[in-house]
Amino acid sequence: MTKFSFTKSAQDGKARTGVISTPRGDIRTPAFMPVGTAATVKAMMPESVAATGADILLGNTYHLMLRPTAERIDRLGGLHKFMNWDKPILTDSGGFQVMSLSDLRKLTEEGVTFKSHIDGSKHFLSPETSMEIQRLLGSDIVMCFDECPALPADRTRLNDSMQMSMRWAARSREAFGDRPGHALFGIQQGGLEEDLREESAKALVDIGFDGYAVGGLAVGEGQDAMFSCLDFAPDQLPEDKPRYLMGVGKPDDIVGAVKRGIDMMDCVLPSRSGRTGQVFTRRGVVNIKNARHADDPRPLDENCACPACSNYSRAYLHHVFRSQEMISGMLLTWHNLRYFQDIMAGMREAIAAGTFAAWEADFHAGRAQGDIEPL
RNA sequence: GCCGCCUUAGCUCAGUUGGUUAGAGCACUGGUUUGUGGAACCAGGGGUCCCCCGUUCAAGCCGGGGAGGCGGUA
Question: How deeply is A134 buried, as exposed, middle or buried, from its count of CB atoms within 10 A (0-12, 13-18, 19+)?
Answer without folding.
Answer: buried
